[in-house]
Automatic annotation (TrEMBL), chains A, B:
This is Enterochelin esterase. Keywords: Signal. The lineage of its organism: Bacteria, Pseudomonadati, Bacteroidota, Bacteroidia, Bacteroidales. Pfam families: Esterase. It comes from Paludibacter jiangxiensis. SUPFAM superfamilies: alpha/beta-Hydrolases, E set domains. GO terms for molecular function: acyltransferase activity, transferring groups other than amino-acyl groups. Residues 1-19 form the signal peptide. The keyword Endoplasmic reticulum does not apply. The keyword Signal applies. Gene3D superfamilies: alpha/beta hydrolase (3.40.50.1820), Immunoglobulins (2.60.40.10).
Length: 357, 357
């Protein structure tokens, strides 16, 4: 920004209706060595601290003479992390950061610490697919619902290609935007496709929250409304080896509920840190008696992923053992880390190359 | 939510890593008579108040025994309004409301107060267009940039239709998402097309902030990068009577800068509360000497819109007079209200039916 622009910006801000705006500070400021400075303007606060998913504990921030609180953290492993500020007892997102975690229950900002070489979720100079925001009518739920759909680079250019489809479900209080806004599913797919590691595919990201209806209603919504909408409106392959389902947390539980009761329709079922404490999960898997021989023929890939620090680590291990005991062949993908979207991106990046092959 | 679901939700929340989450409260709660209750949980705050664009002044909230602050406001004229809470001296969005204003400079939540009959921006049971998130390479700016594109219902179904295009620019600190997330441009277009009032069209919403480059670089970015990208990737009509440009605030200024210097390319130029305090605007219009006769033949529609309480009201009136004095024929659209996205939606809804006819 040159001086004239700065002056114009200041004039504009002072003209503006939001008379109470705080001064502009740069936050977060990511340094070349992967350390990060966070800043927050709060003249009258007694204490301000930083909460971030790369920190074990909240970090106190220091106030300067102008009322701007700041802290610089040691170099952080490159990734995208949720963070927020605690101002006295109040949790706030970073007002100077545009990027907010798409969620119905909490508000975090996101800080993107780029790698020295590009990470798999980074925006790279490769052909880009497209994310579309659609509406569909759900007969199951009696309402118009949102749907986010990724189509790969070069989609439908010749009007002849038909694509396999991954149905990808978000976590418990997330929204249909979380897989792209936080999980960068589109960029992960763009990069893996550009590297020749993943097949061009359509990724459908439905909205998993069906309130005020009850959670098990999501299964018929996917089967009877979402899939028919996609298959009527996109050039897709409709046989089971070209249909996959995956999801995180509550969406991982929904993935198991939907996928394992429909193995004639999904040859790929990938549960990321699946959350089991739901009515539907207990109904499906408490006294589970699958036709394992048949299912093992139908399933080309069945994975359960989890981090060793995930609060669901023991639960996922127990379920892996249970599925094995019932004769199924789950592949377990166990990594470091917790119940986070940093891990979730890894799970997706590991899954995509294994689909539709 | 039934009791089992509630119990599961509570269990899940208590398991979760975000141990410091406040209790779930319903906020905002819009009542049938258009009054609204806002709630915020803050046990230790000394005072909490509501700021909202339907209020002249902040409204104090009252704390109950559980530490939840609330206030119920009198019936409000149905519309979508930005609001926030002030917790002691700290401005926060509503943690229980998913919908956040897409902006780089401030953080507001949005409350949607539906009309007794559907408003023009509401989600109705009509055919819906699609919003696509794209990337394009800007040679002008030397970077990959985001672009949001609306395609109308039934787009490209027969593979033969070519569409007119409206280029629609956001306000000063907004993002490429603000026209859809806050301005509901897609739903306004869906509804007007369903009513037969607007022609099916493509609406291209570029990202107007070109920092660290200087603001006038946006003009060549639109002309040499955005438009060629759209015309290479979408079935569009490329003659001037099928190309329009419109924008709000800083984007209204950019609209005048781009549109009036390229009347051979845009037959429709619609400025919504245009902000004139920029270098480029002064360069173009301080000693303005247009070939009015030629331009009046080229321009099928040239409008300036503003609200009587807009901080730019006098400025827009002055510019309308200036353009008239220079022999151009601006249509002025002057309504109640301020420099807000409530007004901005009105301006768009008034413009769309007049385009490409």
């Amino acid at each position: 920004m040159n001086k004239i622009q700065l002056l114009v910006a200041i004039l504009f801000l002072s003209f503006s209706a939001q008379a109470q705006r705080n001064p502009v500070v740069v936050s977060p400021e990511v340094h070349p060595n992967h350390s990060v400075t966070f800043r927050f303007s709060a003249k009258n606060a007694k204490q301000v601290s930083l909460e971030a998913q790369f920190l074990k504990d909240k970090l106190p921030m220091q106030k300067d003479a102008s009322g701007v609180w700041s802290v610089t953290v040691d170099p952080v492993k490159p990734d995208i992390y949720p963070y927020c500020f605690w101002v006295d007892d109040t949790q706030v997102t970073d007002p100077n950061n545009t990027v907010v975690f798409a969620n119905e229950r909490f508000k975090y900002s996101l800080v993107d610490i780029p790698g020295d070489t590009p990470l798999i979720h980074s925006l790279q100079n490769v052909p880009h697919g497209k994310i579309s925001y659609r509406y569909y009518n759900s007969k199951t739920l009696g309402t118009t619902r949102p749907l986010v759909i990724y189509t790969p680079p070069g989609f439908n250019v010749n009007g002849k290609t038909k694509y396999p489809v991954l149905y990808l479900i978000h976590g418990g209080s997330d929204t249909e935007e979380t897989w792209t806004k936080v999980g960068k599913a589109n960029l992960i797919a763009d990069n893996l496709i550009a590297q020749g590691k993943a097949k061009p595919m359509i990724i459908v990201m439905p909205y998993g929250n069906v309130r005020p209806k009850s959670m098990p209603e999501f299964t018929p919504d996917v089967m009877n409304d979402v899939i028919p909408f996609v298959e009527a409106n996109y050039p897709v392959l409709t046989d089971s080896p070209n249909r996959a389902i995956a999801g995180f947390s509550v969406g991982g539980g929904q993935t198991l509920n939907i996928g394992l009761t429909n193995t004639d329709k999904f040859a790929y079922v990938c549960a990321y840190a699946p959350y089991p404490e739901t009515e539907e999960f207990r109904k499906n898997f408490s006294n589970y008696a699958p036709d394992a021989e048949k299912m093992n023929k139908q399933l080309k890939l069945f994975t359960l992923s989890v981090g060793t620090e995930d609060f669901l680590f023991e639960s996922v291990k127990k379920n892996i053992a249970m599925f094995k005991e019932k004769g199924l062949k789950p592949v377990s993908y166990i990594v470091d880390g917790g119940h986070t979207w940093m891990n979730c991106k890894q799970y997706l990046a590991t899954t995509l190359p294994q689909l539709f092959k």
